[in-house]
């Protein structure tokens, strides 16, 4: 109940291709401070850390850039390490109850789960069934089973054994030839369990915007051949199903339309941003989960910013603040925008981020003090560490 009611805040990570930063910044807008509304600046005061993918490699000194170096004044320089992106970088897949699912970036293979507030993380088992030629099609995410009180990671990929087997697709029920399967790993167990066939786009797109809500993980499926474009996976039943979508004012869904939608949650409600119409965002919210008639078009937001610019592209809903403001992340410009829902003629306002020079990625995150220690049952199989800052 707490996580469904609590406000989410932007969690910012540098998106530089050449520089690896372990820093995550949790942005908590100071709503009681009128300066936030007038100057629209975000201060990066809460700095968190993510683990390294290969800490042993770093601790052994490989790639160490400045060990033993000193400046002209004889003062020893700060110890630093040259980290290669292909060995150490991690991407944030999604957030669930204050925990983050992190993946290896080039393949999107789930690698570890961490709580950046407590500094705890746990490495995931490497599945033995994965094939290098199929990993580019991996979809993944973290969720929570309220029935068993377990955190679970799901991964979906194209298997190589008997790739032309005829299967029944779990969402539409149609039969076709595919090797797309799903596997589940419960934190604290020793294996991945294959649970059957997984949904996929016939156009080759990955599932987009993994969003956890009400015991299920949700994605957008880009496929003009399938009418149900919001799909979910329930962690209690371990089954896929479609979610009723909002009544958009279109006849047939085009590829361009489906590529300009995003999924998220606001105040414990599933929401969809339709950015396919140039000049405005249609923000839909599902008032009662699972009921199609409860979809309401909450806002129609003009995308002309306070700098008189029209910004096309995807806007992802992040947070509905107590003040009535909504925060969006714009993928194309790598920026966070502020919309005051209480103002009749409000426009999107660019939020300046003080303290980070490079472009960044942002996801919605609810911080918590949930400990991963409760999931560890076998010290020989899992290791749990407190991250060194």
Strand numbers in spatial order across the main sheet: 3-26-25-24-23
Judging from the principal axes of the Cα atoms, what is the shape? Answer: globular
Continuous helix count: 5
Give the total of beta strands: 28
Measured on Cα atoms, how large is the radius of gyration? 22 Å
Q: Hey, roughly how much beta strand do the residues contain?
A: 35-45%
How far apart, in Å, are the first and last alpha carbons? 32 Å
Q: Could you tell me the mean pLDDT? A: 78
Keywords:
389 residues, 6% helix, 5-stranded mixed beta sheet, globular, mainly beta
How would you describe the overall organization of this protein?
- With about 400 residues, this protein is mainly beta.
- Helices cover about 5% and strands about 40% of the residues.
- The chain has five helices and 28 strands.
- The chain has helices spanning about 1-5, 35-40, 55-60, 85-90, 255-260, and strands at about 10-15, 25, 40-45, 45-50, 90-95, 100-105, 110-115, 120-125, 140-145, 150-160, 165-170, 175, 180-185, 195, 210-215, 215-220, 230-235, 240, 260-265, 270-275, 280-285, 295-300, 315-320, 325-330, 335-340, 350-355, 360-365, 385.
- The strands form seven sheets. The chain has a five-stranded mixed beta sheet. A five-stranded antiparallel beta sheet has the order 5-6-7-8-28, with no helix packed on it.
- Strand 7 (about 110-115) and strand 8 (about 120-125) form a beta hairpin.
- The protein is globular, with a radius of gyration of 22 Å.
- The model is unreliable at about 30-40 and about 65-70 (pLDDT under 50).
């Amino acid at each position: 109940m707490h996580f469904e009611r609590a406000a989410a805040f932007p969690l910012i990570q540098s998106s530089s291709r050449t520089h690896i930063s372990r820093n995550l910044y949790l942005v908590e807008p100071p709503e009681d401070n009128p300066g936030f509304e007038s100057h629209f600046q975000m201060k990066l005061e809460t700095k968190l850390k993510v683990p390294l993918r290969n800490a042993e490699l770093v601790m052994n000194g490989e790639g160490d850039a400045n060990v033993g170096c000193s400046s002209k004044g004889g003062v020893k320089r700060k110890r630093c390490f040259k980290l290669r992106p292909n060995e150490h970088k991690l991407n944030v897949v999604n957030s669930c109850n204050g925990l983050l699912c992190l993946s290896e970036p080039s393949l999107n293979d789930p690698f570890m789960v961490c709580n950046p507030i407590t500094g705890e993380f746990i490495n995931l088992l490497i599945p033995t069934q994965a094939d290098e030629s199929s990993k580019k099609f991996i979809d993944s995410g973290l969720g929570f089973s309220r029935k068993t009180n377990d955190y679970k990671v799901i991964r979906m990929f194209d298997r190589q054994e008997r790739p032309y087997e005829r299967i029944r697709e779990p969402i539409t029920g149609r039969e076709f030839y595919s090797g797309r399967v799903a596997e589940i790993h419960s934190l604290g167990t020793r294996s991945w369990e294959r649970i059957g066939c997984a949904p996929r786009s016939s156009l080759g797109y990955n599932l987009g915007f993994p969003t956890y809500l009400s015991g299920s993980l949700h994605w957008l499926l880009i496929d003009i051949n399938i009418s149900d474009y919001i799909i979910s996976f329930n962690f209690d039943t371990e089954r896929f199903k479609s979610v009723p979508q909002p009544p958009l004012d279109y006849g047939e869904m085009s590829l361009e339309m489906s590529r300009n939608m995003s999924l998220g949650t606001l105040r414990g409600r599933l929401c969809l941003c339709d950015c396919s119409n140039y000049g405005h965002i249609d923000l839909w919210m599902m008032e009662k989960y699972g009921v199609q008639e409860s979809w309401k078009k909450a806002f129609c937001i003009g995308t002309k910013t306070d700098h008189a610019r029209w910004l096309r592209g995807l806007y992802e809903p992040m947070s509905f603040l107590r003040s009535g403001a909504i925060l969006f992340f714009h993928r194309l410009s790598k920026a966070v925008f502020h919309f005051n829902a209480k103002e009749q003629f409000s426009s999107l306002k660019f939020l300046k981020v003080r303290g980070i020079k490079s472009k960044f990625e942002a996801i919605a995150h609810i911080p918590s003090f949930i400990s991963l220690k409760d999931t560890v049952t076998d010290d020989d199989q899992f290791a749990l560490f407190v991250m060194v800052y």
